[in-house]
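re: ur question from the group chat, yeah i did fold both. here u go
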Amino acid sequence: LETSIAEETILCAAAVIERGPDERTEHTFTGSEREIMVGLTALVREADPDIITGYNIDNFDLPRINTRMRDLTGSSDKAGAADAYGWGRVPLLDSEHKRLIPQRDGNRRTWRIQGRCVLDAWWQARTVLRPKRETLKFVCQLLWPEREDLQKMDVDASQMDREWAERPDVVLEYCLQDSLLPLEILSQIRAVHSKEALATVCGMPLDVAVAGTTSQWLDGLVIRLADRHNVAVPRTNRGGGRDQIAGGYVHEVEAGVHPWVAVLDFKSMYPSIMIANNICYTTRIDELARPDEIVEEGIHEAPDGARYLPATFRRGIVPRLLEDLMELRDRHKVALREAIENKDSTGEIFHSRMQYAVKILMNSFYGVFASKFYRFTHPELGASITAWARSNIKTIIAQLEEEGHPVVYSDTDSVFVRAPVDEAVPGKEPEEGEARGAWEGACTTMIEFGEELAERYSREGAELEFETGLSVFFSHGAKKRYIGRVVWPEPELLVRGYEVRRSDSFTILTDTMMEIFEMILDGESSDAVQHCLQLIKRLRAREVAPRDLVISRSCKGRVRPGGVIDFDAVYANPDSLPFVRAAKQRIEAGLNFTPGMKVGWLVTNGKNSPMTVQAWLEGETGVEQTEYDPEFYAKRIATALGRITEAFGWSKDDLLKGNRQATLFSF
């Protein structure tokens, strides 16, 4: 839809019907609002699509049509409402009116259209790509930087009334392009394949896979199995809260560079623990258990004291289900490798999506077990799983240390072990000569070491895999923050926890961080520090492009009748928050804002309280933005990079000053 900013009415509409990758038809609608809506509705009913998509269709297009339908037809004109918005796959009867008109799914973001799936391309792109900004233009540039035919057209959406009055043909073409791009996005990220695979594995309709919750997906598996084994199904638990469950174990990491590290990973750690220890709502033993439910031998007692029946007495519903899922995933992984070897692209896509869908469901069980609401859970279940996980990993770490294999780091289900390789062997792959031979030998030694440890320490409920070989590992000493140069199984740079992993970080910071990571792993820590100092100097000289300083963050809000966004309903003091003020500036400029979307802004004065910000609208309005506060960004960068350079004696303050404070210990 293209809508009037002044009147909030529909100016024109467009749709693309896709029946296959090479079979598309394009449709445009002009005239009065009623004519546009009736024409669009007639197309939906005639084409009868299974999936309806659009970019931000959940939060803009569907609610806008709903509002205009109500304004034009009133509450009593059921026939008029059906003509304007009868998109449901049901007969055109008064008795079917409630199912005929699309409805918002309670207080959730999603909409439901009876008999069809609503798959919002914005939400899918947000989930899969995690882009720094979430406008359609930015996402298209991210996915297809070289394809002009898949870029959003140059129409000023903030002046849509003027554009429609002066260039209606261009606006209609722009509208049609906006209908085509969501289809291209879903195809590029294989969103439909993923949802179909999820629906297949959990045995639920496609609309539940698209718009359902994790507990609904698992219900599709657990309730069926419970029914087959005559196990009563509890109602959804709406009960009160409880103490937070203790998480996984995280081993302290020593700041600095560590050469030649083998990473061992527990295969499907939480599902394996549930299977090995028969953890299930149907096997938990408590003080209310009947005498005939208590056995004398084989009880699984968790480190936190919770107890579970042995599988020989009663196999739990969830462990039984997890075993089947693990076997199913292994089958798809084998088939995936065969498809890749045979260059079977269709088979590769299918088995890749299927094994990933199984993985999602398997890993979801711990989440619902640790929740307060799932029908098949109890407070002890999630706590038992993490207690066993902590015990397993601590035991292995102690054994490795006792054998003389230093554990560099450990996090929940991974152990980083120093391999028996000469520290003199370079971490960066040499091109040729003796150093090359030594490097290849070091790789072989590390791989053999990792595989031997994985085989030796694997046992039921704690199967270890040699996951990754690193030629060099670095951390500044904080948990869950590290980098490494992977040499096995495939060369890559491993980054965890730093700002490059955060979608709310700005471009120049993430780019610089990646550059200094490469320098550190190459043993060039002094060059890395100098690179940080030069960036701060360039910032203060205003030599950094403003587009590289845009900060982005998701902004919430509640949509009130008439489309007004209520920020006070979500935030206690919304005007103190830079992202809320940036969102309000978007709205004032006549640009689209959806609660939950990322908004971008530049800080123009960081000394004010609250700081002064300017929403980043250049890409949508074409108006150049140049103003920013260099000192604010210098401090932000020094803070982020200073955490890393502290490992080499350069603090945040040192970076800002441009030199290091000398002390008695410096000489």
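okk and heres the other one u asked abt
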Amino acid sequence: MKKRGLVIAEKPSLMRDIKTAYDTIRTTLPYTLDFTALRGHFMELKSPPEYDDSWGQPWTLEALPMIPRDFEFNIKNDCKRDYKSIKDMLDSGAYDFVINACDAGREGQAIFGTFYNHTKCKLPVKRLWASDNTIPTLGKALENLLDANEPHLKNMEYASFARMYFDWLVGMNLSRAVSLKANRTIPTGRVMTPTLNIVVMRDLEINNFVPRKYFEVEGDFGLYKGTWFDKDTNENSFSDEAKAQALIDRIGKKGKITSVEESKVNQYAPELHSLGELQKDANKAYGFTAKETLDLAQSLYEKHKILSYPRTESRALSTNMSKEIHKHLEAIKDIPEVDKYVKAILGDKPRIDKTMKSKKYVNDKKVTDHHAIVPTKQKADLSKLSDKEKKLYMLVVKKFVAIFLDPYVTNKTTIITEVDKESFKTTGSVLVDMGYREIYGASKEDDIIPKVKEGDTVDVKGFNIIAKETSPPQPYNDSTLIDAMEKAGKFIEDEELKEVMKQSKGLGTPATRDSIIEKLIERKMLIRKGKTIRAGEFGFKVIEILEGKPIISPELTAEWEEKLTMIED
């Protein structure tokens, strides 16, 4: 008699997809399955007064720090009915094992682990691990279930619980301490507060910016022009216009070409999309907010099943996935905007093989829980997509197709002209091949430089002083703030922690950065002004109160991530 298992998916939509996959292969499996689903996080850590009456209202400094002896969870109010229903199934005695079918990653481990531990169920647990929710992928995952007690899975679960506990400790204790000192409620968190600080610091730079004038000297050599530079220091401007004029006054009217360097530059397509890169591209192209992009990507993944798992930090594919890459290309070969490129790629197996051997695009070491975002093997019906869904899907499709196309090629030329031992630099390029940029409809006007050779003498037609002014830094928008959160290591001085932050991909996760930004806006610490994100008066006040405290620096997250990674390892 076949064993019987209960699949617990993270969401009802995923449960339905897994059931569909199961129905296509059920006769080949050595077990039968029933299905149910959570609604994301069913559980939440208890509030302070639920551990100790003295931790309730009114808040006092004497009660701090609040450190529970053991952390405990409550069932969320709107999940109690579903919780009871699933627990009854677990307690029924009908099942031999359970399958954790939550998202494959640290967060999925947390969602299942908090629920399952709370039920006190003792049934053995299997783990379904899939990179997308297409039927073939889910079917393969059902055929290759993992043991949930495998060390890497258990360690990931331990790390997920450690992160929850310490976020509670920091959030609850610091929020109260700061609020009591400021005499107003100030929510504080180890990701939220450094993100706020990043925006506040940029806005302070903008507010305190004093423009500085500088002057460049341009020489006109008839067929081309060049900009003066100091060949010893590489400086190319003067802070004083009189000094620029003095240079012009002391040099003559004859020049000599002392150097001509020509080089062919091949620029290959960039790496594939992580969620962060997709959020940045969508913001630049269409003004989508980070949250909007995640919601659209989630719909394309969950509802339409034409996008791989979106909450990923990876920009590369796994070696295992690369073996079936032609199926992903087949799924998009009839899309009008890319059909001619895809059909040509599919007819050129050596090109596909060469691309799949490139460490830039296929690299197991660069793949974390999930590979880069790409179109799935399922053919897309664009007529069923909203305008925004189609725009986002096509961003992913074009970046995916681009990696198989030729590089963008230019011939770059640099000329150095000397006039009485003063040097002038001229640079330009000529387009050779549009390569992968053609898929984006890009065009480039050549900055053509005449054919000259070293040793040629040239007549100086004249000099021109060009007055310029330094510009303040640009305010953050969704794209640049997501980028700053990803690259938060640049705000850390400690070199070792800077590297940790780089490896851990910065503040927050691809799945949470958009919600952190929105939470700060909702609490009036940040303000969205058109496409820009600025610090509000309340945000400035919070950072002023916390000045010098570790909580405003990404360094705290780097230290945590270092330890969480050690737990996972």
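fwiw on the second one: The longest helix spans residues 151-182. The mean pLDDT is 92. idk if thats what u expected
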